[in-house]
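Example record used in the benchmark description.
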Amino acid sequence: MNMTKTLAIEPKKQETKDKILEAAQQVFATYSYNSAGIRMISELAGVDHPLIKYYFGSKADLFREVISRMRMQRTELQKNWLTSVRGMGPTRGFSLFLDYVLEDYRKRPGLLHLVSLNFRQADQKKQTPGFDLIEDFVQTEIVNIKESLGIDVPEHEAEMWVRTLVLTKISFLGGSSNHAKMMGMDPKSIVYFNWVKEAILFNFLPSLKLMIQRSSSSEKKE
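Model output (structure tokens):
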């Protein structure tokens, strides 16, 4: 076998796979799994649709690959955000954390759109392939934020606060086109992003402060 020729082919294969993945991310962030089609992805990637089966096996396998790659990047970023705000007061720390969330969404909106679109599929008799990865992504976000709080409050209260925060964020950002449209805003505008931040701070900051205050009082009594 001509090794020079083989080595020249490999980058071409990787380039094709990358094109397919990039196109798939765009399609799955625009359409639910059941509405998205392999031909949509192949046309956007500029490749013959049989190549998707060749490289990824099936639409379900490709969908799982897209979710895995997107959530891995997001999880690592979130860990860094939580570390950077640790030790700050609730007002400054929570505000800065939301800035990180919104800036990342502005650059990479696809994951939250994908999650929002496919949440609606969960009640069907045949579950969406990869829905377990979506569930795991949401649960990982909840666990990471809850652990970062580091406050002594009942477990169910911390769980309820964080879960509601995460699902609110997914709703407002993952479903931004609908929410913004109802308020006459551009979903990609700073005006909408500011509204989302203000709404979350208004609804969640007071209860966060209260939990921290109760935790501090409990520690002093001990």
